[in-house]
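Database export, one record per block. Field names are fixed; values are copied verbatim from the stored entry.
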Amino acid sequence: MGILKGTELSISKLVGRAIMDYKMLRDRDKICVAVSGGKDSLALLQILNKRRSFVPIKYDILALHIDFGYPRSYAKKLERIFKQIGVKYRIKRAGVLKKTKPKDINCFWCSWNRRREIFQAANRYKCTKVALGHHKDDIIQTILMNLFFHGEIAAMSPKQELFGGKIKIIRPFAYVEESMIRRFAKEEGLPHVTCNCPNALTSKRRKVANIIKDLQRSCPEIRTNIFKSIKRVREDYLL
């Protein structure tokens, strides 16, 4: 599988740390890696696959792509990538678009329906874990989104059990900043796609990302500070 170096090595070390800190994996796990086709999920698939050659535990990988029909022919491109990486894979065509009007499609709709398809497929293929490509910046943005738009203090957990433990989600990129993934994708030439939904430009997540970017000019450590804050709650100062 080759020797890890440069950005790939740096990311792999952060992934290893997150896996250890949150006890994400166990020996003989079967991991369903949800691959949307973006840089984050493709990078996660490649890192997890390469780590299998040197980590002490043994686990299997199943790459899963939920095909929403856009962009056209991308599912076939992903199939070639999966074969090139050398992992087992499944591509599942989602039929929910036939029942939905374009005006009703937004980021929440897309995320919810994609997640539902992923969970159903992971259960069907007897996967013990579902790995998602959410990174440190996603977690940071989620903290502020919950605060601003929902009036609650909550994050995106690196490890999470749903439906009474039937589905176990892991986010091995919890310590990895998006800039590192972007650099890695460029170095590796990963043929990823970006979301072409017009709502993506005005989404709440995009707005929060812009706020953080603006504040970073006066506080370079703002991302790390927000990330750490969820673990450093001063209960004596809460209402």
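Remark 1: The chain has one domain: 6-237.
Remark 2: The mean pLDDT is 88.
End of record.
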